[in-house]
Amino acid sequence: MYRLLLLSQKLPSQLSQIRKIYSKVQKIRKEHKYKNQVKKLKKHHSTLSRRDFLKLLGLGGAGLGAAAVSAPVVHDLDELMDLPEAAGKRPWFVREVDKPTCDVDWDIMQRFDYSEVMWAGGLRKALGVEEFERILEIGRENRLLWMQESRPGYTLKEVALHGANHYAPYSFLGPQSSPTPEALGIPRYEGTPEENTQLVRAFLRLHGASQVGFVELDTNTTEKFIYTHDYISWHTRPFGQGPRLDILDVDEPSEGDGYRVIPKKARWVIVYALRMSDDLMKLAPTKLGNRAQYYMYELKSLIQGQLQNFLRTLGYMGLGEVSRYNALGIAPAFAVMCGMGELSRMGHVITPEFGLRQRVFKLITDMPLAPGKPIDFGAMNFCRTCKKCADNCPPQAITKDTEPSWDTRGKPYHSPGVKAWYWPQENCQAYWRQIQECSICYAVCPLSKGGSKAIYHDLQRWATANTPVFNRFFRNIDDFLDFGRRSKPEEIEGWWDLDLPPWGYVD
Ligand code: SF4
Ligand code: SF4
């Protein structure tokens, strides 16, 4: 806060703007305080008048007359708590919209082969086999050298932390170790799509998901996010294609040599995110920083099997990812369509709650679910002017073009049909493989920092969600306040001495 005031003195013309935004933010926060009060009141199960109800939702006074026309009738607080307005699940600066903030041309978009993506065969294809192997060798040499010379973030203890991987078994059909309804002698669980949605969300939140969303598959639109061919490891030699993902009019899913079958009746995708550690992420590009991603992959391997078993006992199928990282379909696309976040300049989903600080996974089911809607909290607009990830990318991989484009620049690892910021991913990957890790773009992103309680971030988020006018200003102030990446040796080594909260979540 002190630094914010200092900056304000240096920029007197912007001080009054900050004051105006701050008072608006305070007003909105006050309104939201009402909702928290409602939650406390629920214990007492009292009866509310419509007027009281609207007041609690911040619609009292002048707004009451207009709002009352369409306001729902609420008899008691239990009914009130069932209303989406009272749930308060998303931050107050988030708006639901009919279409995603990135334009999509569904006619151009087609299902995509996973083997083409950069993390699979993309880098080898872009560089050629010889150069690809040379890059990998440089990475191996660097790893040994940096351990030997005890480079901060790459010493033996950091290599040990990074390599402490341990995964639960994961598969397309799941562990199938829980009883089915038939085995229990009862009919399967039946609920409305909304009830099912709440059930799955509650299950996933309990097991560690930071966000949960739902997409309904439609042949002409969202089904195109499912890969034509499933995951194949980049280690595979000779490299080929993963198993075909066939969507067929059959009753049961199956898999065999070179194929997996998704029944057409499995029309819903459960999208869930696992939040990464805030402090670890700031230490990019070290072995420490990269652990922020890996332990979420490990957690996912456990959660996926648990969710598949949960759905099985309820009487439904759960078709999972056969990789710890990514499989089945395009994660950012599903995350955008279910309303988890917006597409960012660097191609990942950016969420209102955590910015880029999460990994996104998905699972297909035949349990009917209520799909979410895309959201707009100004992120794509912010990306237009921010460009901080591009400015800080060592190999200059991320484009600095202001506007997104339909042009995939002839790169086979890009899936066409989205107006996005396409950039040469081989530059990123070649750099990543040589220094073994990166994620600097995650660490520096101004939308990836701070808790929802921080005054500065309240200001930023309100402004970002409502107008692009201040976007340049907030990019500059983020540089000045320096919330992001920590690269000094003492900052990297100091991580081991932090009194960390569970999972490293600081807010
Ligand atoms: S991970 Fe590193 S190299 Fe790749 S885009 Fe981000 S900053 Fe650039
Ligand atoms: S650093 Fe800026 S441009 Fe890049 S993803 Fe974050 S908000 Fe967008």
Bound molecules: iron/sulfur cluster
How many structural domains does the protein architecture include? Answer: 1
Residues in helices, as a percent range: 40-55%
Main beta-sheet strand count, sense and barrel state: 4 strands, antiparallel
Explain the overall architecture.
- By secondary structure, the protein is of the alpha+beta class.
- The protein has one domain (114-449, 484-504).
- Helices cover 42% and strands 9% of the residues.
- The strands form four sheets. Strands 2-6-10-7 form a four-stranded antiparallel beta sheet, with helices on both faces. A three-stranded mixed beta sheet has the order 3-5-4, with no helix packed on it. A two-stranded antiparallel ribbon has the order 1-11.
- Strand 8 (342-343) and strand 9 (349-350) form a beta hairpin.
- Helix 7 crosses helix 17 and helix 9 (156-162) packs parallel to helix 13 (287-314).
- The chain binds iron/sulfur cluster (2 copies).
- The site of one iron/sulfur cluster (SF4) has 13 residues, from helix 17 and helix 18.
Concise summary:
With 507 residues, the chain is an alpha+beta fold. Helices cover 42% and strands 9% of the residues. The strands form four sheets. It has a four-stranded antiparallel β-sheet, sandwiched between helices.
Summarize the helices and strands and which ones pair or pack.
Elements: H1 2-10, H2 12-41, H3 50-56, H4 64-70, H5 77-82, H6 84-87, E1 95-96, H7 118-127, H8 129-148, H9 156-162, H10 181-184, H11 193-206, E2 211-216, E3 244-248, E4 254-256, E5 259-263, E6 268-275, H12 278-281, H13 287-314, E7 318-319, H14 331-337, E8 342-343, E9 349-350, E10 358-365, E11 375-376, H15 379-386, H16 388-392, H17 425-435, H18 440-444, H19 455-466, H20 471-481, H21 489-494
Parallel strand pairs: 3-5
Antiparallel strand pairs: 1-11, 2-6, 4-5, 6-10, 7-10, 8-9
Helix pairs in contact: 2-19, 7-8, 7-17, 8-17, 9-13, 15-20
